């Protein structure tokens, strides 16, 4: 069996989802999880796009071991230099240069002709190669390019030193047979193609990203560029879990393998969804809540007789360990420490003590503490480190409600060591809490979206609340977790208003749509606080 290299771009293309915005510490957390997932390459970001992104890419390059760490750059010297500065500390660095090959990109975006565009690309590639031994070259909008011109570009970038050449379906225009044929044409026509890894990068505008990626693999591509949960620009990118599981489940057809540890898929999906504030749709292939739920009587009967009747993937192969109850209030420090180490966390003593305290309080309320709960507790502690005392923190809340009465919330927030309090009525208890928080802050926030999801399936499950709020043209995400959903919601709201407060005050960079493709940076409607 031949190997397929898995290149994850959740932190770069995935982060181009409108509104999704991670701070460097969050990006690092996702990168560490991607390394546990054992992807071959992590595209950590686009360092020239913002100082926050540069910082995140550098942090990942310096700290994450195992996968190749990739930084994106346009075919522009400054981009390439900045990308190299960000990743030069990595165990295995790679600069990823991209330039369009379709006439519409060459003429309309750059005002060039094909030859001039090719020269620009080759210059950039040679410069990148002078800094970094591994260079990936992407022929942006390849699927809408003239195949003969594309083949000639591919041949020349290989001759100039590219080690990976990527063929993107940038606008999700390709269909599987045609895209497969394009890859076959390159394999047959480009004489030096065996010197490099041929890669594909498919977008999902027609819902064909996974199918196109698999067709390319069948025809000779050996690197697949994907994102977790299929996140990405517009309709997203090929979903990593779908591509990897298709290759694994249909070994009989594909005859390939990847290095991905599929038992980390679910955990990665949950982490990405939570940190990006992008819930996974219930019927999403592989990682959706219903992906393994059999509701029809006939199916349930079959499953009970033999799982193979209606199940092509074992949930445990994705790390869905239904009954893997791990810890209880009596488990003690040692067991919790073992668990966190086994889950890949490297906590300092001070952090571990905070995790243990929170664990005891969660274990008090829940009989069983699952891996997903431990993940949440650890992440809360890690990210609490980012909070500074000049931001609001939830101190306490109290709700008075009853049949036919408008709920009333009394909320206390702490800021600069001072406790501030307000009381408000609302349409429901959560509305009352949010209004009381607005009163304390002295600003109205529009609630754009609000969701609560249970982490595990028991009645005492931890709930994760996700809120999106807007104010003065800014939009921000907040998340909170607790066994008490009112508390989770209040925490999420406080996080969001802190972020917006920083943005309004101009204390943090406003990422928004990134500087890309030669375009200038525009004012972002969405944003996050950069740590
Ligand atoms: O979609 C695309 O073409 C890209 C390139 C930068 C690889 O994201
Ligand atoms: Zn893309």
How would you describe the overall organization of this protein?
The protein is an alpha/beta fold and 531 residues long. The chain has four domains: 2-276, TIM Barrel, CATH 3.20.20; 291-320, no CATH class; 332-382, no CATH class; 386-505, 2-Layer Sandwich (Double Stranded RNA Binding Domain). The protein has helices spanning 24-36, 51-63, 77-87, 103-109, 114-131, 147-159, 176-189, 209-218, 240-249, 251-254, 265-276, 297-305, 332-342, 349-365, 371-384, 429-441, 485-504; strands at residues 2-3, 5-8, 41-45, 68-74, 93-100, 135-140, 164-169, 197-202, 223-226, 256-257, 393-402, 405-415, 418-425, 446-454, 463-471, 474-482. The strands form four sheets. Strands 2-3-4-5-6-7-8-9 form an eight-stranded parallel beta barrel, surrounded by eight helices. A three-stranded antiparallel β-sheet has the order 11-12-13. A three-stranded antiparallel β-sheet has the order 14-15-16. Helix 1 (24-36) runs antiparallel to helix 11 (265-276) and helix 14 crosses helix 15 (371-384). It is globular. The model is unreliable at 510-531 (pLDDT under 50). It binds 3-methyl-2-oxobutanoic acid and zinc ion (ZN). Zinc ion binds at residues 13, 168, 170, 201, 203, 233.
């Amino acid at each position: 069996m031949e190997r397929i290299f898995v290149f994850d771009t959740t932190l770069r293309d995935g982060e181009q989802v409108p509104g999704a915005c991670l701070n460097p510490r969050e990006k690092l957390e996702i990168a560490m999880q991607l390394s546990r997932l054992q992807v071959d390459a992590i595209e950590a970001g686009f360092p020239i796009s913002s100082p926050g992104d540069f910082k995140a890419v550098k942090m990942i390059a310096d700290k994450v071991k195992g996968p190749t760490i990739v930084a994106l750059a346009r075919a522009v010297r400054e981009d390439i230099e900045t990308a190299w500065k960000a990743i030069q500390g990595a165990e295995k660095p790679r600069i990823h240069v991209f330039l369009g090959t379709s006439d519409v990109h060459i003429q309309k975006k750059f005002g060039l002709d094909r030859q001039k565009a090719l020269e620009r690309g080759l210059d950039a590639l040679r410069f990148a190669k002078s800094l970094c031994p591994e260079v990936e070259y992407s022929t942006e909008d390849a699927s809408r390019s003239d195949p003969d011109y594309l083949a000639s570009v591919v041949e020349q970038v290989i001759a100039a030193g590219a080690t990976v050449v990527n063929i993107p379906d940038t606008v999700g225009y390709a269909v599987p047979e045609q895209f497969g044929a394009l890859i076959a044409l390159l394999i047959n026509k480009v004489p030096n193609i065996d010197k490099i890894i041929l890669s594909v990068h498919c977008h999902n505008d027609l819902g064909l990203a996974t199918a196109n990626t698999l067709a390319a693999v069948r025809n000779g591509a050996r690197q697949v560029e994907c994102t977790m949960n299929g996140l990405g620009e517009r309709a997203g990118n090929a979903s990593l879990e779908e591509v990897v599981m298709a290759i694994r489940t249909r070994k009989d057809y594909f005859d390939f393998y990847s290095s991905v540890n599929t038992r980390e898929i679910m955990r990665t999906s949950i982490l990405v969804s939570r940190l990006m504030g992008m819930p996974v749709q219930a019927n999403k292939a592989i990682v959706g809540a219903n992906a393994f739920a059999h509701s029809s009587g006939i199916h349930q009967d079959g499953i009970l007789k033999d799982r193979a009747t209606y199940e092509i993937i074992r949930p445990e192969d994705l790390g869905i360990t239904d009954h893997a109850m791990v810890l209880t209030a009596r488990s003690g420090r040692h067991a919790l420490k073992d668990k966190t180490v086994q889950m890949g966390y490297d906590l300092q003593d001070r952090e571990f003590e905070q995790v243990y305290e929170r664990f005891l309080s969660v274990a008090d309320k829940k009989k069983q503490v699952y891996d997903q709960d431990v993940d949440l507790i650890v992440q809360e502690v890690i990210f609490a480190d980012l909070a500074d005392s000049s931001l609001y923190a939830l101190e306490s809340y109290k709700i008075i409600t009853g049949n036919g009465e408008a709920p009333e919330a009394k909320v206390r927030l702490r800021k600069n060591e001072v406790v501030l309090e307000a009381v408000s009525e609302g349409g429901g208890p959560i509305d009352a809490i949010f209004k009381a928080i607005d009163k304390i802050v002295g600003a109205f926030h529009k609630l754009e979206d609000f969701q609560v999801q249970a982490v595990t399936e028991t009645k005492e499950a931890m709930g994760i609340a996700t809120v999106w709020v807007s104010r003065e043209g800014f939009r921000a995400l907040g998340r909170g977790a607790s066994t008490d959903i009112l508390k989770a919601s209040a925490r999420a709201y406080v996080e969001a208003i802190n972020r917006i407060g920083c943005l309004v005050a101009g204390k943090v960079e406003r990422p928004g749509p990134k500087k890309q493709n030669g375009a200038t940076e525009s004012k972002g409607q969405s944003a996050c606080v950069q740590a």
